[in-house]
Amino acid sequence: MEINTYTKRFSSPLYLESGRILEPYEIAYETYGTPNADKSNVILICHALSGSHHVAGTYEGERKPGWWDGLIGDGKAIDTTKFYVISTNVIGSCFGSTGPMSPNYPSEAPYRLKFPVVTIKDMVRAQMQLLSHLGIYHLKAIVGGSMGGMQALQFAVDYPNLADHVISLASTYATRPWTIAFNKVAMEAIRRDPRFMDGNYEKDAFKEEGLDGLAIGRIAGHISYLSPESMDAKFGRNYVSNDGLFELFGRYEVERYMEYNTSNFSKYFDPLSYLYIIKAINTFNLSRGYDSLYEAILRIKANVHLISFSSDYLFFPGEMEHIARMMERNGQRYTYTEIDSNYGHDAFLVELEKFDFLIKKNLEED
What we know:
This protein is 34% helix and 17% strand.
C-alpha cells in the first residue's frame, strides 16, 4: 500500500463558530489507494485527540505504523485495493495542520494563546474545504472513533448529503461533565507548570525532556481510556522488582507504565495543541446551532452505524444508544452495536477484531 502525504495551504478565510477567522491555514493529510473514475469509493478517516493524519502503513525507515493500521490497508476491513482513503490532521493539532504554534501571518511568530478556540464543527468545515479542493463532493463513508466519531456525526448533521455511510465509534452526542472533569486535570496541570510560561515557550522546547504538566494531565486521560478490568489483567498488583515495597516512591507496575508512556507523550505532543483540542472536545454538542438535539439528528440522511464498548468510561454506551433510539423513532437508517469489551475506551484502537467485520459489512452495503 502506497502512502502519499500532503499539506494544502488555503488563503481563503475559515469562518469559525466563535466569530473569529483563521486565515491563512494549512491542512496536512494522507491518501491511500486509488480513486475510481467517478470518485465514488472515497472514505474519510477522522482522528481522535492524540491522533494524526498518519492512520495506516509505515513510513520508510520507521517501525511504528499508523494508529489504525490494523483496520486500513490492502485486504483489511477498509480495503485500500477497493477504496480511496483520505485521512486529515485537524486544525489545532501539532502534526502539520495549522495550530497554536503555527506562524501568526503575516508575522513569523507563533500564535500561541492568540490562536482562536476551534470546535469540532470548525474542524469539519476545514475538512470540507480540503475535500472541495480535491474535487470530492460525495463520500462512500466517514469513519472515526472518540473525537473522530464526533467529527463523523458532525459531518452527518451539518452536511446531510455528503456521505452514504457514517461510522462513529466510542463517541457521544455531547461531552458530559465526567469527561470534562478528566480534561480539567490536564488543563490545570499544564497551565500550572512553570515551564509552560503561560504559553510563551519556544517551539520544540520540550522535545528532549517533555513537559511535566502535560505528562501528569495525560495520566488522568490515560486512566479514563482504560478500565479497571483491563488494568487488572495488564498489571495486577505487580510491583517493580527493583523498587522497595516500603520506599515512599516505590512503584507498582501500573505506576511505572503511566510514568513511561505519559513522559514520552509529553516530548512529542505540543501542550498548547493539547489544551485547544480538549477544549474542542469539551464544547462538542451536536445540538448547538439547531433548535434541539432532535432537530439536529433529524437532518441526517446517511446510513449511520454506531459502535460503543461496554467498558467505555469516557463516553458511555448509553450516549451512543441515545442517538440510536432517536434515529429509530425518526425512521432513519442506522445500526447500533455495543461491543462486549473489558478494555475501556481505547478498545476502538486495540480490539479491532471485535468490530472490523462490522465495518467491512457496512461498507459492502449499497
